[in-house]
Design a protein that fits this description.
two-stranded antiparallel ribbon, mainly alpha
Length: 140
C-alpha cells in the first residue's frame, strides 16, 4: 500500500465514546477499538477488491486489511507485500491507483472508500455500541 496516500475518518460523538471507554479497562478499550476498525476496514477491503483492475486477478486477491496499533490506532486497506500477499501486487497496485507518466490512473482504493465510507462507519459504530453495552452489563 502506498504510504503517501492516507485517508482519515472523524468520528462524531467522540466525547461520549471517550466517556464510555473510561469505564472500560485500558486493554478492553484498545481491543474494542481494534475490532471496530477491523470491521470497518473489511467493508472497504471487499469493495476495493471488487473494483480492482483484473488483468490477472492477482491485485484483487492481494488487497488485505492490516493493523497499526500504538497511540494512534489505524486499520490499513490495500495491496501490501507481506507473508500473506504477492509482493508484486503492492508495487503494481500503486501504479494502478495513482498512474504513471505512461499509464493513466485506474483508482480502486479511493473510490471504494468513498462508496463504502458510511457503511464502514456504521459497522464500526455498531461494534463499539455492542462492546460498550457488553462491558456495562458485566459491570452492573
Amino acid at each position: 500500500m502506498a504510504r503517501g496516500v492516507e485517508i482519515s475518518v472523524r468520528i462524531e460523538g467522540a466525547d461520549a465514546l471517550a466517556a464510555a471507554f473510561e469505564d472500560m479497562e485500558r486493554r478492553v478499550a484498545r481491543e474494542t477499538m481494534r475490532k471496530a476498525l477491523e470491521e470497518a476496514a473489511e467493508v472497504v477491503r471487499a469493495e476495493a477488491s471488487r473494483r480492482a483492475p483484473r488483468r490477472t486477478g492477482r491485485l484483487a486477491e492481494n488487497i488485505i486489511t492490516d493493523w497499526e496499533g500504538g497511540r494512534a490506532q489505524a486499520a490499513l486497506v490495500g495491496p501490501r507485500a507481506g507473508k500473506r500477499t504477492d509482493p508484486r501486487s503492492a508495487f503494481y497496485g500503486l501504479f494502478q491507483e495513482l498512474g504513471t507518466s505512461r499509464h493513466p490512473a485506474q483508482p480502486f482504493l479511493r473510490p471504494a472508500f468513498e462508496a463504502k465510507r458510511e457503511e464502514a462507519g456504521e459497522r464500526a459504530a455498531a461494534v463499539l455500541r455492542d462492546e460498550v453495552e457488553k462491558t456495562r452489563a458485566r459491570g452492573a
